[in-house]
Amino acid sequence: MGRLIYLIAVVLIILWAIGYLGYNAGSIIHVLLILAIIAILLRIIQGRKVY
Asked: Domain residues of the chain, as ranges?
């Protein structure tokens, strides 16, 4: 389950980067970025490795 959350976070960061460079994704892409950062921070706070 933990690796799945990390995978989702990485995918969201990649989607954010694509949307940020494309300028046509609107503000929803920034919400995805925030969700990805929260997922990564939760893993770090819980003491699990992020790899």
From this structure: 2-45
Whether the full predicted model's pTM is greater than 0.85, yes or no, is no
Residue by residue, pLDDT tens for the chain (51 residues) are 667 888 888 888 887 777 776 665 566 777 777 888 888 888 888 876 655
CA distances from 25 to 4, 14, 30, 40 (A): 24, 13, 9, 23
